[in-house]
């Protein structure tokens, strides 16, 4: 639905909304009385300090299956060893900023409780960007809650916009810069807003004359502690502003010589120069749109960072057809969006999630229905980007489309650009220009595609399509998850079998794990270091689920499902060394299948009996210690309604007493006859701090054989 046509519908909702700050007076009022939704804002989630340069993957044909080398970087051959991808320090590579500008902002995304317009625009290529800027032409653009939280979940910084334009902008700065106390007050107000909403800085966009540039420079220095970018061309005296802030966002009307000059001027701060990239292509190098790649190639060549402006063009500029329906239009948007970002992806860097537990149901914060474990909770369409889950951080090949280049007469391009007569006459001096158009290939299907017709939890899931090339793996995540004990993996699928491929690295080199259904044997097992794992069953499954409830209850998924979903658990042993999970892929050869959930948790499992290294004198597995204590990790505040199902075992020398059940905050102890020492400790694992748990309790039995939890 077009955002302008839906505005009246949105205005009728009686829900909380995120609004811009239109005047300086409103800014000061915001500081005094901030919005109630500020309590929902989340902090930036740290990611790995290393990134992957996508260009190093895409330029190495040894990584891909033979038949896909000529097209794109999506299919990995299961029978060949992939080249190890180099990790680069994040502080030494160029960055990517996305500046969201869609019809002046604040549409469906501004409603805290969401809307019913499931086809509203959302952004999901978070793995390839570093900074997200929400832009509008209001005085102070405050990013809506959904953008703050989703970006921070993906490790992306979020900045708002301060913009002044025309005569009104000149008058504002004339007043604010007239006295030091005034511009310090303005800077303090912006800092207060950023702290209140957990923003990471501001984009300062001054599009008017400034009579006191020295005072403006002092104001910029006052904001130096925030992440921000300055919207002006980098040349001459403006270098002082670049030196005073964290980055500079150039304009779009540049030539290659301008990029070269800015790169030379920046010196050691080259990565802080963000070259403006206008996807709409307004008076812009290469014309933008599906040819945006041409301009990005120039910035990439000189090592500059990117500032991609208005990528929502793929949604906002959808061609209108008489017989269009919502489903068809949204499907067309998805193809256009994949085509744009697929062409840009080789020039970006991939951020690596690194913290366990990690879980996602792949929901994009929208759907035709809303479900929990497959059961329909809301039968109608919905949109709320705040409920987006972690998205795949790998782009895939041009299945279902192809970008075709052709030379066209410049008069045709001028008419499309709708420039004024003077610019049109100037451009008509050129004879030809390059135009890139999207051609649909309806018989092809992408490796992964959004499925809105079903979901495990949320409004959507991933449809994993089989490769026409046979046994191939499509990359899902690049990551850097470290673990030393057991890695428990939960996979939820439907319709057909899906194999999950895990690539790990340890002191003994690389290993590949194939998580397949118990009855299947997967190709690719002949490679050294490759192992196929079957789902956990019986007592091992019970032990793993119980331990997951105790250690990571938020990652627990019920085993039985009445809605056709299959829940499988797998366990990977680290053998007492630190392992790193670096890549996750999927394959399906029997037909389209649905992937509804994927989760990774590090826990201790008794059937692996992990030992600390140290030779014969090393620590023994817990259940083999000749002591009267069994250690378990319990978060009482999170599991008090689950403790009825917890079984604790007691060991005195070589005698094991029968297991006993506990009640919330009233843990019955075995009698002194069964356990003479009468001592049970419920405490965190040695690798976690006590502060990570809300309650630690020591239970001590007496001659009566009973004990109680502390208050």
TrEMBL record:
GO molecular function term, any single one: mannosyl-glycoprotein endo-beta-N-acetylglucosaminidase activity
GO cellular component: cytosol
Domain of life per record: Eukaryota
Domain Cytosolic endo-beta-N-acetylglucosaminidase TIM barrel: 106-227, 240-368
Gene3D superfamilies registered for this protein in UniProt: Galactose-binding domain-like, Glycosidases
Listed InterPro entries: ENGase, TIM_ENGase
The protein's name in its UniProt record: Cytosolic endo-beta-N-acetylglucosaminidase
